Amino acid sequence: MTFVLAPGLYIVATPIGNLGDLSPRAAEILLNADVVAVEDSRVTAGLFRHLGAKRPMTPYHDHNAEAVRPGLVARMATQAVALVSDAGTPLISDPGYKLVRDARAAGHAVTTIPGPCAGIAALTLAGLPTDRFLFMGFLPSKQQARGEAIAEVAGVRATLVFYESGPRLSAALAALAEGLGDREAAVAREITKKFEECVTGSLSELSARYAEGGPKGEIVIVVAPPGEAPPASAEDADAALAEALTRLPASKAAGEVAKRLGLDRKALYARAMEMKGG
User: Which terminus of the chain has a smaller tally of CB atoms within 10 A, N or C?
Assistant: First the structure.
């Protein structure tokens, strides 16, 4: 169907593997946009062949974004500009947020056409908690920087999601096992494709499985949150109360320690009064 799109920026999610996942709305936007900003025209040309059509494309990626962005923003005043990545949802571990920011600053309409995202798809396959998750993108390639990045999130009480490539998978899993401990995890690859696979196990098990080298293509690693901390001991509670009582009255000290250690406030208050009386 041919129609005239209103000027502005259209952020279009495209399939991560199975071309049947392209939504009808996404297809309409791509077929009617005045220009499509792409990471790699060869990749997006394959999508247009699937649609049986051709549209003007212009490269927009990490290496040319600063030079190309002003021209794209200017075109949005009178034209419909669609933004796609090679696969999945643009801006998710791909260039684009500055284009959205500058489009908004120029007063242009920004519309999203949601769809596939490898990180979200992997979460649905992994069988790990999804009520809280943190997307980390790609880990640094250098060992020290990778270790530092992992250490930053070691205490985060959320499922962690990483993108990775096959050649780096083994090193990434080993570093995660070392930095996070032997948590439950999953390695998902070829999502939506014929040979889709999601392998689950502990980080040490997965590290051993892929020690000889990872599969080809882009991969998603999903890692479970840290386990529950052991309950505070009576000695821990007494030490915390003793310190709090140097600054606060018994009721407030009990409340502070109860919140910090997850203990019963009334019991802590009674113990605080014993300590003050003693």
Answer: C
User: Which residue in 162, 143, 165 sits closest to 213, CA to CA?
Assistant: 165
Note the pLDDT of residue 276. 83
Whose CA is closest to 30, among 7, 59, 64, 5?
5
**Per-residue pLDDT tens digits for 63-116:** 999 999 999 999 999 999 999 999 999 999 887 999 999 999 999 999 999 999
Pairing label, strands 80-83, 133-138 = unpaired
**Residue 64, φ and ψ in degrees, nearest 5:** -125, 0
pLDDT, one tens digit per residue, over 187-198 is 999 999 999 999
Token pair of 128, please? 């790990």
- Report the candidate in 150, 8, 153 with the shortest Cα–Cα distance to residue 72: 8
Give the sign of the dihedral formed by CA 204, CA 224, CA 16, CA 72. Answer: negative
CA pair distance 82, 32, nearest whole angstrom: 9
Closest to 198 (Cα-Cα) out of 117, 128, 118, 125:
125
- Residue position matching structure tokens 């019991």: 267
**How far, in Å, CA of 14 to CA of 158, rounded?**
27
CA 201 to CA 270: how far, in whole Å?
A: 45
Stated as kind and residue range, the H or E segment containing 235 is helix 234-245
Which pTM was predicted? 0.80
How far is residue 249 from each of residues 155, 255, 262, 269, 274, measured CA to CA in Å? Answer: 31, 10, 19, 10, 13
Q: From 29, 2, 19, select the one nearest 84 (Cα to Cα).
A: 29
Name the strands in the sheet holding 218-223, side by side, starting at the edge strand that comes first in the sequence: 133-138, 159-165, 218-223, 184-189, 197-202
